[in-house]
Amino acid sequence: MTRALEARGIEKVFRNGEEETQVLKGIDLDLDKGELAALLGASGSGKSTFLSIVGLLLRPTAGALTISGDRVDMLSEAKRAQFRNRRLGFVFQFHHLLPDFTAMENVAFPAAAPAGGISREMRARARDLLTRVGLEDRIDYPATSLSGGQKQRVAIARALMNRPDLIIADEPTGNLDRQAADRVLDLMREVNQEDGATFLICTHDEGVAARCTRRLTLIDGLLASNHSVGEV
Amino acid sequence: MFVFKVARRYLLSNPSQSLLLISGVALGVTVFIFITALIAGLAVRLTDQVTGDSAHISLEPAPRLARVLPGPDLPTEAVPLVSTFQRKQIRDWPVIVELLRSNPAVTAISPQISGSAFLVRSEAVSPVSIIGVEPQGIDAISQITPKVIDGDADLGADGLLIGVRMAEELGLSAGQSVLLRTDRGVERQLTVKGVFRTGLQSLDERVAFLSLQAARPLFTLPEGVTNIEVKLANPGTARATARFLADATGLRATPWQEKNLSLEDALKAQAQTGTLIQVFSLISIIIGVASALVLSAYRRRSEVGIMRAFGVPSSFILWVFLLQGLLIGLSGALIGCASGYGLCVWLQGLTKPDGTSALPIAPEQGGYVAALVLTTLGAVVASILPARSASRLDPLEAIQQ
């Protein structure tokens, strides 16, 4: 079976003049399709860097990265952008919605921008996704008029718009109150279970990790633990 | 088009700032149009003032050159010359006048006999430039008849029209007689039929008109004329028309510009000054648009970053900002053209007590197409830098901020 993610010997060294800092020291990781994985680690452990590399926002210094069977670490910038657009979904700690657009337009944006417009199909899918995240009554609301939790749910709908192979979430509940955070987590679990979407969630929150099916811990640039929640 | 929608949405998201920006562009375009119309109007007025009472093209016989006459009987040591002391004349002038009449660019023609003479009255002697004209064509080049302040403009067989300064100098008035002595040594008693005042010292002090027929014996020219003066519908075409007429007639054709080189230099300097002001207007528009879009791109770093993270092509982001520049430039240019035209028309309507326009402005020559095209292009050029910087933004850096 093709894996959602295969990382082999991922290293990352940041250089600042003569000074070199090795943040990732050779990470090997496999994620199967349909997994809901939590990536834990203290500040400076390298989890955000690893997530950025998996999200093709940063190039590794060494190692190989394969997503859904495609080797992606060697791609050109244009190809990486195209891959991010078609095969990856992103949810960030801050929703990063486009404030001048409605909820529906925000959700449709990743598909509409490369296509040159919002087609009837895109509009229908965006409406379906917003209905699914419980915002059917906010479809044409400006993004600025939504609450923090609603904005994050729009962000999840946006991440799902292009039916990605892998959804990367960086502290998706880090900026929400408990109630809103639970709702967002419920939603991600639901999408994971019903659609078989693969999630890699970077978090500090043990509560979030506890609701995932897999738990990965990074310590000082190395994968220290890697097991399913049931194995603990 | 989605990219257009995004650009428009960005502009409308802060209407007061966009309005201010478009107003700035419109103001620059208004200045551009005002200066262009003013320079054009000034050039027209100056040209009119200079050429109003003079010809646009003067046709004269070509200068004669000394040459060896061919012939087997001539002794080899002799080099006979065609005399250059003969009065140059245009013998076939009726044919040339007919040719000129068929040219649509020509509005008036005046065949003339011009020469130098003295007016003598008792002890007083005054040098004078004589212009012999066809009596019915006295106003062809310069409007003399309306400027006659004493007597009338009917030249008759022995009539003379003189300027007011000369009349004062010699103590002459209409109806009095005066002796004319030409440079050919011919004398004749003539009657002052009228005294004119043009306001031009050179005319009022030193020029006298008489009929072509009266001038013939005085300058010993029984058939020809010395020059043919021509007025054109558009004085600006004088050089080209002069070249054409010289080729067609074999005569020397001198356009008015060659007789007024200092005016031409002044008009050129004036046009260059106008161009400089126009260039500075455009530069200020470009700087204004560029700085506003640089700020806009900076404010929207996180939005652009998230678009880049989603893999939105950098060309899409480039076009979002280029289109903003285009929309600002086009809107500002259109408003500026309208307000510039309105301002010029209003200024043109301001008149002096004598009814003439207080400001020599030509609203129809405001350079509207140039203003529209240059401003729109300038605004697009101004948006290139912020657009490129936005399209190259590192998504990770922008998101982390």
List keywords for this structure.
heterodimer; A: 232 residues; alpha/beta; Rossmann fold; 6-stranded mixed beta sheet; 4-stranded antiparallel beta sheet; 7 helices; 10 strands; globular; B: 401 residues; alpha+beta; 2 domains; 6-stranded mixed barrel; 13 helices; elongated
Notes on the structure:
The complex is a heterodimer of chains A (232) and B (401). Chain A is built from 7 helices and 10 strands. The mean pLDDT of chain A is 87. In chain A, helix 3 runs antiparallel to helix 4 (120-132). Chain A has a single domain (34-59, 77-231), classed as P-loop containing nucleotide triphosphate hydrolases (Rossmann fold). In chain A, 35% of the residues lie in helices and 28% in strands. In chain B, a hairpin with a 4-residue loop joins strand 6 (177-182) and strand 7. The mean pLDDT of chain B is 86. Chain B folds into 2 domains: 2-49 and 264-400, no CATH class; 89-225, no CATH class. In chain B, helix 2 (15-51) runs antiparallel to helix 12 (368-391) and helix 9 (261-299) crosses helix 11 (314-349). Chain B is of the alpha+beta class and 401 residues long. Chain B is built from 13 helices and 10 strands. Helix content of chain B is 52%, strand content 17%. Chain B has a 6-stranded mixed barrel. The chains are: A alpha/beta (232), B alpha+beta (401). The A-B interface holds A 52, 55, 57-58, 78, 80-86, 88, 90, 92, 94, 96, 98-101, 109-110, 112-118, 158 and B 1-3, 6, 9-10, 12-13, 302-303, 305-314, 316, 395-396, 399.
